[in-house]
Amino acid sequence: MITISGKSVFGGVSIGKLMFYKRNEKVIKRTHVDDVDAEWQRFQNAKETAVSQLKGLYEKALDDVGEANAMIFEIHQMMLEDLDYLESIENIIRTQEVNAEFAVATTSDNFAQMFAAMDDAYMQGRAADVKDVSERVLDILCGVSEGMKAMDEPCIIAADDLAPSETVQLDKSKVLGFATMHGSSNSHTAILARTMNIPAVIGLGETLLPEYDGKMAAIDGFTGTLYIDPDEETMAQMQEKRAKDLEQKALLEQLKGKENVTKSGQKINVYANIGNVSDVGTVLKNDAGGIGLFRSEFLYLENTDFPTEEQQFSVYKQVAENMAGKKVIIRTLDIGADKQVDYFGLDKEENPALGYRAIRICLTRPEIFKTQLRALYRAAMFGNISIMFPMIISVDEIHQIKEIIKEVKAELTEEGIPFRDNVELGVMIETPASVMISRELAKEVDFFSVGTNDLTQYTLAIDRQNEKLDQFYDPHHPAILAMIKMAADNAHAEGAWIGICGELGADLELTEEFLKMGLDELSVSPSMVLPLRKRIRECE
């Protein structure tokens, strides 16, 4: 038996044969071409095919893993349209009179090295994306089909690391688990594994050898261990552990309809985060008390032009009606950073995470904001809708928002269109600035929702996508917990309520801490609602 230790990104136990992800081998040779125009056209055709493939992957990922995780394929499409990237390839083809394959491979290496050498962690993370998207174009140019298609039986997928495009293309019904040599716990692949509820262990290192392909293996997603050719004793332990895990999940089902209340009688609301209308069924299935974060971006990401008021109204109304009076907190447009949409015409930014995004777009382009607000206020007639604003850093922003809301209400009144006047308003606490002025903000709104993903990133100055920084990335950092506590105290001091909608809300190690802070609500992925309820009911 061979035992390899790595890092767990999703709990659970899986047992099955190990299958190494086999990438199609291709040899890139430099060859002379006489007709450089024809060669450049050959590249253009391959690029268009790649863009079409990526659009298909985006659609597939939307269904499999939701809008937020599908975004990577939008980013890859944008990379293929990047002028610097295209100019480099064209220049190599024309000046060196070489084949497109060589030009793409050279550009890919050059750009990946350039990104990797940058000080900015976000840009460093783009090195892998350039490689991934270039490999796609090279596969097309070389006439090689994409990745591993044939999976005859359920198996554990092993690889050095998996690109998002590779993960999405796998037949999910036959994937028992993931085992990778590299990867970060906050990488796209890890997030995809968690979203798909598949046990995964990363960071197994070079000890995970290709010759283990086809061998029986067991993943212990609780300890981050991979067993290859497990002996009878280990196999029995894994089978028992898996059975207990399944039993645990069955017990959780029994918690449906029960209250989220501690042994001492403290109650807390448990809501669910969603990225699309199609997720509402999962929310109801997992017995969430409401929707704590409805990411409205998907309406913009799926469209080729700005979604109309009627389009938005129809979606918000449907969700509100389906939730039958339960709270639905809809976050206004959060485009920018890694969520780009061509028709917004946003400039390329050096540091998009700190750039022109979310509420900053809404306040400087009020026509977009007004359309969304009109749809939201109208839809609020059909259910319990609250509106939440992202990336707030000042009280002045709230005043500007309220002025725009006043204009929207006046317009709707004048047009004789019915709307709900008293919609609950909240802000996301996801910047250190919003924490420090949270007392003043609480005087202006009804609630706070802490976006711990961004709050952690901004507070620790760490790009959570960068695996080199994994050892420094600590979501349990005392500074983060102190900030959440400060925001909670200030919210309650001014009569506002506060919840968490970031990933930390589902961290069962912190549940008791959050209860002590007096948080009113935790919003988590639908699959975490019942485990969180169980943990709450165990607390004193």
Characterization of this structure:
Helix 12 (about 310-320) packs parallel to helix 14 (about 365-380). The chain is of the alpha/beta class. Helix 7 (about 165-170) links the parallel strand 4 (about 155-160) and strand 5. About 45% of the residues lie in helices and about 15% in strands. The protein has helices at about 35-65, 65-80, 85-95, 100-115, 120-125, 125-140, 165-170, 190-195, 230-255, 280-285, 295-300, 310-320, 360-365, 365-380, 395-415, 430-435, 440, 450-460, 480-495, 510-515, 530-540, and strands spanning about 1-5, 5-10, 15-20, 155-160, 175-180, 200, 215-220, 225-230, 270-275, 290-295, 325-330, 385-390, 425-430, 445-450, 495-500, 520-525. The chain is globular, with a radius of gyration of 25 Å. The protein folds into 3 domains: about 1-25 and about 150-250, Glucose Oxidase, domain 1 (3-Layer(bba) Sandwich); about 35-140, Enzyme I, Chain A, domain 2 (Orthogonal Bundle), CATH 1.10.274.10; about 260-540, Alpha-Beta Barrel (TIM Barrel), CATH 3.20.20.
Write the layout of secondary structure elements.
Elements: E1 2-5, E2 7-10, E3 13-20, H1 36-65, H2 67-80, H3 83-96, H4 100-116, H5 121-124, H6 126-142, E4 155-159, H7 164-169, E5 175-180, H8 188-195, E6 200-202, E7 216-220, E8 225-228, H9 232-253, E9 269-274, H10 280-285, E10 290-295, H11 297-301, H12 309-322, E11 327-331, H13 359-364, H14 366-379, E12 384-389, H15 395-415, E13 424-429, H16 432-436, H17 438-442, E14 447-450, H18 452-460, H19 478-493, E15 497-500, H20 511-517, E16 521-524, H21 529-538
Parallel strand pairs: 3-4, 4-5, 5-6, 9-10, 9-16, 10-11, 11-12, 12-13, 13-14, 14-15, 15-16
Antiparallel strand pairs: 1-8, 2-6, 3-7, 7-8
Helix pairs in contact: 1-2, 1-3, 1-6, 2-6, 3-4, 4-6, 12-14, 14-15
